[in-house]
Amino acid sequence: MRARLERLFERLVHASALERVAISVAALLVAIVVGGVFVFVSGAFASCRTGLNLAGQTFCYNPMQVYYELFLGALGHPLEGGWHPRNLRLATTLQQTTLLIFAGLSVAVAFRAGLFNIGTQGQLVVGGFATGITVLAAASILPGGFLGTVLLIPIGVLAGAVAGGLYGAIPGALKAYADANEVITTIMLNFVAVGVTSTLLSWQFQDPDSANSQTAAVPEYATIPTIPIVGFHGRMSFSLLALAFAIALMVAIAWLLAATSFGYELRTSGIQPAAAAYGGVDEKRMVVASMTLSGALGGIAGAFWVLMVHGRWLENVPPLGFDGIAVSILAGNNPLGVGAAAFLFGILSSGSSAVGTATAVPPELVGIVSGLVILFVAMPEFFRLLGRRYLDVETHRPVRADGGGEADE
Amino acid sequence: MVRDRRRFLQAVSTAGLAAVAGCVGGFGDEETESAATVGMIYSTGGLGDNSFNDMAQQGVMAADEEFGVSYDETEPDTEGDFDSIQRDFAESGEYDLITCVGFQQEDPLADNAPEYPEQNFIIIDAVVEDADNVRSYVFGEHEGSFQVGHLAGLLTTEEFEAGDAATDPDEATVGFVGGIEAPLIRKFEAGFVAGVEHANPDVEVVTSYVGDFNDTAGGRETALSMYQDQGADIVYHAAGATGVGVFQAAESEGRLAIGVDDDQSVSEEDYADVIVASMVKGVDEAVIDAVADVIDDEFSGGVEELGLADDGVGVAYGQSIGDAVPDEIVSALEESEAAIVDGEIDVPEQP
User: Dihedral (C-alpha) A286, A288, A290, A296: value to the nearest 10 degrees?
Assistant: First the structure.
């Protein structure tokens, strides 16, 4: 049994990039079939006016319809007439993609440094809150109009990054200097983040004109501007500029990890801390630095959530930080893969609301279906991570006479 | 050659897509003639609360029975989703009426309504000003709550025993459990406290807000501590699905509870033996009324206030133990109702 497991792990660990893509696609198809059966069978327990009568049972839900809405509804039904590329559904998909790129990068950076950052959510909450109140305060002293946009948005994003970074540095420092497990500390700091921001909100920053728990709205010119003509309409809460920034940041992080000495030190500390220390890496500082960078990325996610989606900070922050963990694992913690994984999550998130609107399928069932998709697709990657970590898998590298070797990453 | 193959592939894929598109409808979704299409956006408590959202759903179902309308429903997870879902419904242009259930949708709707001037909206429990495509339905929750407060204040000192529940006549304490501490829910509290006061100034009211409309366990804990530690024998709730926990606590302690929005002794039948009364609120009537106006082309914006006088709110005695309420208490409630309608009693809207 164990030998078999080892063989399986070994196969997964050494799968080439192409094999991994093939495995993911196969997993996606299996998930769709399993989820479809789930939806269809659940339909027998629901009550509806008209349904499909089979073997004395009435089935209410059509799995084909659910998947059609889930995947194509998220793009605004491109196969139907009257499709416009700049529709609200696609805007929502890309909006979620943008936010999840930031959150996924945050988790991926920590993962690559050998740290399990579960605290992206807390860093995002704190970062978003800092962005909201900083922009509100700065807007009262800075000029408005175009100049206001140019000044306020960088200030807001920077505030989010700094606050998130500092909040990420806490568990980093605790791990480096007090040997506290970062999984525990980051989880606990998530609760602290929610509690502290809610308290500050009700104490000082609550919008007096609203029954909802939220800060006042930042001025219109302080929200992320949309590109005229080719961009999405301003009321769709999405800007191509933000997506471009997210992609640029993704490339920058990939370059940082792959081509700089900081990235090299970060990766070696993740792979083999003892060897890194032997090679002259100050591992304590490295832990703090990588957690700070991770937190800053989480804070940027919060900043964009505030400046792009709502134009204000709301107490009820969606669990983007936790989705970021799944995005990162799905991408094999590769910064460039985060983009594709975030896009899949964006589709599932926007498609879920399309399913909710267009069909009678309850939202919980849609949640199960998209959860299955993620579970199946991420499973091989997860086993790869496990296999690398816990199994002494030998590396089979063909020895070449010319001394060259291929990197297996 | 290559071009042939490409054309063949194109033809095949088009046929395939058409086939897929053919079976992506709902089962039995034949295009039926409907008088109107309604979009329902529920509040974060969601369907299945046997109270507020379910009332709105009953409203649209009743409208369907009566006029034959089709409707789409959606249940947002958090208040952050309201904005995009409202726009989603409005953007599609398929809906003759979009119903926004709950006061938390007020801010996003105030932003969105002017963006879609041709789209009819109604909002329940909040007022969106200056938009002639929005009709705001608000209820006299304070007046209805005054009535059940009056009932609780009189009952707590009586020796009352019915079903699984009994009062403790030595303890003159009643409780109120709220969902989120928002102005609307404080309106329930204010009316309830005033009603208790009106019945008997010596009765103490303990209040607590759970902080969520969807936290049954939290509602149960809160009510348990009221029943066990604070000596409350009747607890009234305005907390959506959180309130189910209040009934659970009443059941386990053998005490009384008062439901909200719907006649909960009917919708929460399992707890009918502890629900002495409910403060019913005509959310369903509001929806039916709006749908009827849309069909008759008489829809207009503005504010509809439905208080005790308009039968928008009122007391419904529990179906299984309501009959045990003494006649003199029932007539006292009728007197205070008449006094509120005539303006002799002025019920406060905020505690």
Answer: -150
